[in-house]
Amino acid sequence: LQYPNCSMVVPRPSRAAVLEIRAIRERLEGYAAQLAAARIDAARLERLARTQEALVVARRRGEPRRIMHLNEEFHFSVYEAAGVPVLTELISTLWLHSAPTLILLFKPEHISRYPLEAQNRNNLALVRALRRRDGERAARAVSAEIDLGSRVLDQIMREIGWDAGGANLI
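The chain above was modelled as a monomer; its predicted structure follows.
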Protein backbone atom coordinates (compact mmCIF):
# COMPACT_ATOMS: atom_id res chain seq x y z
CA LEU A 1 0.00 0.00 0.00
CA GLN A 2 1.34 3.44 -0.89
CA TYR A 3 0.26 6.57 0.96
CA PRO A 4 0.20 10.16 -0.38
CA ASN A 5 3.38 11.10 1.50
CA CYS A 6 5.23 8.40 -0.53
CA SER A 7 5.51 6.05 2.42
CA MET A 8 4.71 2.42 1.87
CA VAL A 9 3.40 -0.37 4.03
CA VAL A 10 4.14 -3.94 3.02
CA PRO A 11 1.53 -6.35 4.36
CA ARG A 12 2.97 -8.99 6.64
CA PRO A 13 2.25 -12.49 5.32
CA SER A 14 0.87 -15.01 7.79
CA ARG A 15 3.18 -17.59 9.29
CA ALA A 16 1.43 -20.28 7.23
CA ALA A 17 1.97 -18.28 4.02
CA VAL A 18 5.65 -17.79 4.85
CA LEU A 19 6.11 -21.52 5.36
CA GLU A 20 4.19 -22.31 2.15
CA ILE A 21 6.46 -19.97 0.19
CA ARG A 22 9.52 -21.63 1.71
CA ALA A 23 8.17 -25.09 0.76
CA ILE A 24 7.68 -23.92 -2.83
CA ARG A 25 11.17 -22.42 -2.81
CA GLU A 26 12.58 -25.71 -1.59
CA ARG A 27 11.14 -27.53 -4.61
CA LEU A 28 11.95 -24.91 -7.25
CA GLU A 29 15.43 -24.12 -5.98
CA GLY A 30 16.23 -27.81 -5.65
CA TYR A 31 15.11 -28.31 -9.24
CA ALA A 32 17.24 -25.38 -10.41
CA ALA A 33 20.29 -26.82 -8.60
CA GLN A 34 19.63 -30.19 -10.20
CA LEU A 35 19.59 -28.60 -13.66
CA ALA A 36 22.66 -26.50 -12.87
CA ALA A 37 24.68 -29.60 -12.04
CA ALA A 38 24.57 -30.61 -15.70
CA ARG A 39 25.16 -27.10 -17.08
CA ILE A 40 27.45 -25.14 -14.77
CA ASP A 41 30.83 -24.16 -16.17
CA ALA A 42 34.22 -24.19 -14.44
CA ALA A 43 34.47 -20.41 -14.14
CA ARG A 44 31.10 -20.15 -12.37
CA LEU A 45 32.05 -23.04 -10.08
CA GLU A 46 35.21 -21.19 -9.05
CA ARG A 47 33.24 -17.96 -8.39
CA LEU A 48 30.75 -20.00 -6.38
CA ALA A 49 33.54 -21.50 -4.25
CA ARG A 50 35.02 -18.02 -3.64
CA THR A 51 31.60 -16.66 -2.66
CA GLN A 52 31.17 -19.53 -0.19
CA GLU A 53 34.58 -18.71 1.32
CA ALA A 54 33.52 -15.07 1.70
CA LEU A 55 30.29 -16.27 3.35
CA VAL A 56 32.26 -18.25 5.92
CA VAL A 57 34.26 -15.12 6.80
CA ALA A 58 31.13 -12.96 7.03
CA ARG A 59 29.43 -15.52 9.28
CA ARG A 60 32.44 -15.70 11.58
CA ARG A 61 32.52 -11.91 11.82
CA GLY A 62 28.75 -11.74 12.44
CA GLU A 63 27.98 -9.42 9.49
CA PRO A 64 24.27 -10.01 8.81
CA ARG A 65 23.92 -7.67 5.81
CA ARG A 66 27.00 -9.12 4.14
CA ILE A 67 25.77 -12.64 4.86
CA MET A 68 22.42 -11.87 3.22
CA HIS A 69 24.08 -10.30 0.17
CA LEU A 70 26.59 -13.13 -0.32
CA ASN A 71 23.95 -15.79 0.33
CA GLU A 72 21.79 -14.35 -2.45
CA GLU A 73 24.80 -14.06 -4.78
CA PHE A 74 25.79 -17.67 -4.04
CA HIS A 75 22.37 -19.15 -4.67
CA PHE A 76 21.43 -17.10 -7.71
CA SER A 77 24.72 -17.98 -9.33
CA VAL A 78 23.57 -21.61 -9.14
CA TYR A 79 20.02 -20.87 -10.32
CA GLU A 80 21.24 -18.83 -13.29
CA ALA A 81 23.56 -21.71 -14.23
CA ALA A 82 20.45 -23.87 -14.65
CA GLY A 83 19.86 -21.95 -17.88
CA VAL A 84 16.10 -21.52 -17.44
CA PRO A 85 15.40 -17.78 -17.09
CA VAL A 86 11.72 -18.21 -16.22
CA LEU A 87 12.71 -20.53 -13.34
CA THR A 88 15.19 -17.96 -12.05
CA GLU A 89 12.48 -15.27 -12.29
CA LEU A 90 10.04 -17.40 -10.29
CA ILE A 91 12.66 -18.04 -7.62
CA SER A 92 13.50 -14.33 -7.51
CA THR A 93 9.83 -13.48 -6.97
CA LEU A 94 9.63 -15.98 -4.13
CA TRP A 95 12.76 -14.48 -2.57
CA LEU A 96 11.06 -11.07 -2.68
CA HIS A 97 8.10 -12.54 -0.81
CA SER A 98 10.59 -14.02 1.68
CA ALA A 99 12.53 -10.79 2.24
CA PRO A 100 10.80 -9.69 5.48
CA THR A 101 11.41 -13.07 7.06
CA LEU A 102 15.01 -13.26 5.83
CA ILE A 103 15.58 -9.90 7.52
CA LEU A 104 14.02 -11.34 10.66
CA LEU A 105 16.21 -14.45 10.54
CA PHE A 106 19.39 -12.37 10.25
CA LYS A 107 18.58 -9.76 12.90
CA PRO A 108 21.35 -9.57 15.53
CA GLU A 109 19.10 -11.02 18.25
CA HIS A 110 18.23 -14.06 16.09
CA ILE A 111 21.28 -14.75 13.94
CA SER A 112 23.01 -16.78 16.65
CA ARG A 113 20.09 -19.22 16.55
CA TYR A 114 20.67 -19.99 12.90
CA PRO A 115 23.18 -22.85 12.80
CA LEU A 116 25.65 -21.20 10.46
CA GLU A 117 27.99 -24.18 10.44
CA ALA A 118 25.14 -26.31 9.11
CA GLN A 119 24.52 -23.70 6.43
CA ASN A 120 28.24 -23.84 5.55
CA ARG A 121 28.03 -27.64 5.29
CA ASN A 122 24.99 -27.40 3.02
CA ASN A 123 26.66 -24.85 0.74
CA LEU A 124 29.87 -26.88 0.58
CA ALA A 125 27.81 -30.01 -0.21
CA LEU A 126 26.16 -28.04 -3.02
CA VAL A 127 29.52 -26.99 -4.47
CA ARG A 128 30.82 -30.58 -4.27
CA ALA A 129 27.68 -31.93 -5.94
CA LEU A 130 27.93 -29.38 -8.73
CA ARG A 131 31.60 -30.23 -9.31
CA ARG A 132 30.63 -33.91 -9.57
CA ARG A 133 27.65 -33.12 -11.81
CA ASP A 134 25.41 -34.84 -9.25
CA GLY A 135 22.03 -33.18 -9.67
CA GLU A 136 20.26 -35.20 -6.98
CA ARG A 137 22.80 -34.25 -4.32
CA ALA A 138 22.78 -30.64 -5.45
CA ALA A 139 18.99 -30.55 -5.05
CA ARG A 140 19.23 -32.17 -1.60
CA ALA A 141 21.85 -29.64 -0.44
CA VAL A 142 19.65 -26.69 -1.43
CA SER A 143 16.56 -28.30 0.10
CA ALA A 144 18.42 -29.03 3.34
CA GLU A 145 19.44 -25.39 3.71
CA ILE A 146 15.94 -24.07 3.06
CA ASP A 147 14.45 -26.66 5.43
CA LEU A 148 16.93 -25.71 8.15
CA GLY A 149 16.16 -22.02 7.77
CA SER A 150 12.42 -22.73 7.74
CA ARG A 151 12.54 -24.61 11.03
CA VAL A 152 14.51 -21.85 12.75
CA LEU A 153 12.31 -19.16 11.23
CA ASP A 154 9.11 -20.92 12.29
CA GLN A 155 10.36 -21.13 15.86
CA ILE A 156 11.23 -17.42 15.89
CA MET A 157 7.88 -16.45 14.33
CA ARG A 158 6.02 -18.45 16.98
CA GLU A 159 8.03 -16.87 19.81
CA ILE A 160 7.49 -13.28 18.68
CA GLY A 161 3.81 -13.77 17.92
CA TRP A 162 4.21 -13.21 14.17
CA ASP A 163 0.55 -13.76 13.30
CA ALA A 164 -0.55 -11.52 16.16
CA GLY A 165 1.52 -8.63 14.75
CA GLY A 166 4.36 -9.11 17.25
CA ALA A 167 7.81 -7.53 16.98
CA ASN A 168 8.74 -5.01 14.31
CA LEU A 169 10.74 -6.44 11.44
CA ILE A 170 13.33 -3.75 10.92
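The chain has a mean pLDDT of 88.
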